[in-house]
Design a protein that fits this description.
Elements: E1 5-12, E2 22-24, E3 27-37, H1 41-52, E4 60-65, H2 66-76
Antiparallel strand pairs: 1-3, 1-4, 2-3
Length: 79
Amino acid sequence: MINSFVLASLAPLTNQDQEADLIIENRPMKFIQLIGMNGSIDQIIERRDEMMLDAEEITDVLVLHLGTIQKLHDVMEGQ
C-alpha cells in the first residue's frame, strides 16, 4: 500500500555531516526521521507535532503529499 504523505523531521547540519539533504532559507539541513503515512489532515498534523518532540535537534517537520513528490520527481527527470 502506498502512503499518501511523507513526514520528514529536519535538523541543521553539524560538523560531522558530509552532505545536506535539503536547504531551507539558506540553511543546509539533514533528515532525522522519515515516516510515510495515510490519514486525515488532523492526523498528519498530530503526528507532525509528535515528531517535533522526538529529538532536541529537530527544528521542523516537512510534510509532503504523494502528488507533490511526483511533481518534484518529474522536474528532476526534466519533464
